[in-house]
Design goal:
With 153 residues, this protein is mainly beta. Helix content is 8%, strand content 39%.
């Protein structure tokens, strides 16, 4: 399917360029990846040719994450601007036409990458319980708990 024609002139000769689809040849995360950093970071998608952003709105996360998108040469960078949820399943969609061949204007096919973020750090309860759950605990168990409570924090 021909999407458009670009003509250029060099030394009086016209050259017709057929739009070619940029193909993904590498990426920093792949479908099924686990333990992805939830903190803001860059995700790289590498194409087989120089690319430019076509439709930035066609690049998005589910659940939603604020992003910044840009290209440099053959690399599409998707920068997350906020922390993602810990231990959460995400889908990153790079929709059709999100990226274009810089020379011919050919558009990419849709790619969806599913991944999971890593577990978050342990956060202690805000109001820890100061008494044992078992009122009939032994005196030594109560002494250990009292020591732990005295040294909490």
């Amino acid at each position: 399917m021909l999407l458009g024609v670009v003509t250029t002139s060099c030394c009086g000769e016209d050259e017709v360029l057929t739009p070619e689809e940029p193909i993904i040849v590498g990426q920093s995360i792949t479908t099924g990846t686990t333990q992805v950093d939830a903190e803001p970071h860059d995700i790289y998608i590498i194409f087989d040719r120089e690319v430019v952003v076509g439709r930035e709105d066609a690049i998005f996360f589910e659940p939603a994450v604020a992003t910044e998108v840009f290209t440099e040469g053959t690399i599409l960078t998707i920068r997350t601007l906020e922390r993602m949820n810990y231990e959460c399943d995400y889908l990153l969609t790079i929709g059709k036409g999100a990226v274009k061949d810089a020379l011919t204007g050919g558009e990419n096919s849709e790619r969806v990458i599913g991944f999971q973020t890593k577990r978050g750090p342990y956060v202690p309860p805000i109001d820890p319980v100061t008494v044992l759950a078992m009122p009939s605990a032994t005196r030594s168990a109560q002494n250990v708990y009292d020591f732990l409570w005295a040294n909490y924090g």
